[in-house]
Amino acid sequence: MKLYLKGEKCYKPSCPIEKRGPNPPGQHGPNARRKPIGYGEQLREKQRVKRIYNLLETQFRNYFEKASQQKGVTGENLLALLERRLDNVIFRLGFAMSRRQARQFVRHGHVSVNGRKVDIPSFQVRIGDEVAVRDKSLTNAHIQNAFQTSGGRGRPTWLEIVNADKLVGRVIAQPRRDEIDQNINEQLIVELYSK
């Protein structure tokens, strides 16, 4: 009689590994990992958007409250508010490689809006605002590297580069829903908060 190690296939018709098939191990088998529906799907979408924009729950809730008080579609208003955050604008202009890096640049005082230093990442930019890297920070290797490599990422049409040498950009319009390249279903978030 041959002894088999635990988990080793025994090559008999009654082998439990063969019987199980493609299902994961465990007592629930094929029902263990189903795609979430309803509340779970809504919650997952909200958590995903919070992670994309690096927000805490209270901050995200406040943005939703502002968006629901504005005229228009609440989900689109929410995304427009999130896109107009200063750290996101720095990322979209190509002055940073990621939103986290953009947040750090703003926090460390490398950015100015309309000629004034702003070190608050959640600062809401408006149409006509000029966002620039401060003169002291123009030689920063991280900022220069990010700007040179961001060319392939693309820039939304609501932002324009005014002066590429001095790293100055301008907000020329409100962000529209079709310009937000993230695959976000904002309706699920609205449904979650509307309960």
Lay out the secondary structure.
Blueprint: H1 16-20, H2 39-52, H3 57-69, H4 74-83, H5 86-93, H6 99-107, E1 111-113, E2 116-117, E3 130-133, H7 141-149, E4 159-163, E5 168-171, H8 186-193
Antiparallel strand pairs: 1-2, 1-3, 3-5, 4-5
Helix pairs in contact: 2-8, 3-4, 4-8, 5-6
Structure description:
With 195 residues, this protein is α+β, with helices and mostly antiparallel strands. The protein has one domain: Roll (Structural Genomics Hypothetical 15.5 Kd Protein In mrcA-pckA Intergenic Region, Chain A), CATH 3.10.290.10. It contains eight helices and five strands, in the order H-H-H-H-H-H-E-E-E-H-E-E-H. The chain has a five-stranded antiparallel beta sheet, with helices on one face. The longest helix is centred in the first third of the chain and has 14 residues.
At a glance:
The protein is of the alpha+beta class and 195 residues long. It has helices at residues 16-20, 39-52, 57-69, 74-83, 86-93, 99-107, 141-149, 186-193, and strands at residues 111-113, 116-117, 130-133, 159-163, 168-171.
Low-confidence stretches: none
- CATH H-level superfamily title: RNA-binding S4 domain
Number of helices: 8
The ordered string of helix (H) and strand (E) elements is HHHHHHEEEHEEH
Radius of gyration: 24 Å
Q: Kindly state the mean pLDDT as a whole number? A: 86
By DSSP, the count of extended strands is 5
Distance between the termini: 63 Å
Strand order of the largest sheet: 2-1-3-5-4
CATH class: Alpha Beta
Would you tell me which CATH topology applies?
Answer: Structural Genomics Hypothetical 15.5 Kd Protein In mrcA-pckA Intergenic Region, Chain A
% residues in beta strands: 5-15%
Q: How many individual domains?
A: 1
The main β sheet shows up as:
5 strands, antiparallel
Helix content bin: 25-40%
Q: Choose one word for the global shape.
A: elongated
Q: Structural class, judged by helices and strands?
A: alpha+beta
Oligomer: single chain
Under the CATH scheme, the architecture is Roll
